[in-house]
Amino acid sequence: MPIKLRWGVLSTANIALKKVIPGMQRGKYSCVTAIASRSLIKAREAASSLGIPAAYGSYEELLADPNIDAVYNPLPNQLHVPWTIKSAEAGKHVLCEKPLSLTVAEAQTLLAVRDRTGVRIGEAFMIRSYPQWLRLRDLLNQRRIGQLRSIAGLFSYFNNDPANIRNQVEAGGGALMDIGCYLIHASRYAFGKQPSRVIGLIDRDPAMHIDRLTSGILDFPEGQSIFTCSTQLVPYQRIHFFGTHGRIEIEIPFNAPPDRPTRLFIDSTGDLFGSGLTTETFPVCDQYTSQGDAFSKAVIDNTEVPVPLEDAISNMAVIEAVFNSAKSSQWEKPAH
User: Parallel, antiparallel, or unpaired: how do β-strands 70-73 and 5-10 relate?
Assistant: First the structure.
């Protein structure tokens, strides 16, 4: 019987209750043993519905539980760093939802905390442990499409509710922080480097002031990535990787369904009618199960987590540079 990391969850956020916790509960190396809310009633309701043994009416009580090894932090963006610090100082490893922080400077404060406490701290980009993305890495390493030169991605959904936290500027809301971060992370992952400069264009909601439509160009040493993200467009997501001899397309890159297979397309000829298209199908797999197990196993084996702090800080540096570019109307260099 493999060792299982014992997890506690800070808050009853929807992503935790509906996606992450059910996924982790099916894990080989993960078990969820406690959940906390500022409302004990909510915590108990969540624990009862999900079969979680312990429920706490404060985050502090959960962090004081000696039977918890690691914490999953799905709190609002502005609370990511403060409660990640408190979790680490309580001796818990931390998997923090993306984006890790609101600024590069804020994220960098976690480096000293990690080094002082000796815990693992990682960012929850679940794609990094999901089979279709691991396969992409293999294909790019094999030069299946020649040299990667260009990436094009789009990620969107529609939500114009002012009460929704994703539409609140002070909480780090908006398209770039919520979903554009995936497109940036995917581009950095594929090229294996940080872009040397970026340029961004932002359209803000006139009432809520969040960026509702953001596009960017990331300039890498080997090529370029272009992306658009929006919180007020028809729901859609797709990403293409173009090489000198072919291209790869991931059909559902970021919200991969847990109940049906996913597909990746490889075009080896460039024929516009698709005669050279090969489809690779991946069996049903919950990306949150994979994420939890990958982090848990890294802690158990004393190896690096899938998205360590350094990677998270680099991603935030690109996000920050896109925001800066939209203000300056010039190319900006990521700070990290």
Answer: parallel
Report how far residue 240's alpha carbon sits from residue 196's, in angstroms, rounded to the nearest whole number.
Answer: 21
Is residue 181 helix, strand or coil?
A: helix
pLDDT digits (tens, 9 = 90+) for 78-115: 999 999 999 999 999 999 999 999 999 999 999 999 99
Q: pLDDT tier at 273 (50, 70, 90 boundaries)?
A: confident
Sheet holding 232-243, edge to edge: 197-204, 211-220, 223-230, 148-158, 232-243, 247-250, 262-267, 277-282
Residue 222 near residue 195 (C-beta atoms within 8 A)? no
Which helix (H) or strand (E) segment holds residue 50: the answer is: helix 40-50
Query: Per DSSP, which regions of 66-136 are E strands?
Result: 70-73, 93-97, 121-124
Phi, psi of 130 (to 5 degrees): -95, 140
Helix (H, G, I), strand (E, B) or coil at 117: helix
Any idea what the Cα angle at residue 48 is, between residues 46 and 50, rounded to 5°?
A: 65
Whole-angstrom distance, CA of residue 84 vs CA of residue 122: 10
Cβ-based neighbour number of residue 141 at 10 Å: 9
H helix intervals, 144-263: 175, 181-191
**CA–CA separation, 282 and 229 (whole Å):** 26
Q: Compute how many other C-beta atoms are within 10 angstroms of the C-beta atom of residue 157.
A: 18
Task: Identify the helix (H) or strand (E) that includes residue 107.
Answer: helix 104-117
Entry pTM:
0.96
CA separation, residue 251 to residues 3, 257, 261, 266, 333 (Å): 35, 11, 11, 11, 31
Average pLDDT estimate for 149-173: 97
Give the C-alpha distances (Å, rounded to integers) separating 184 from 17, 44, 191, 219: 26, 37, 11, 11
Cα separation, 203 vs 166, in Å, equals: 16
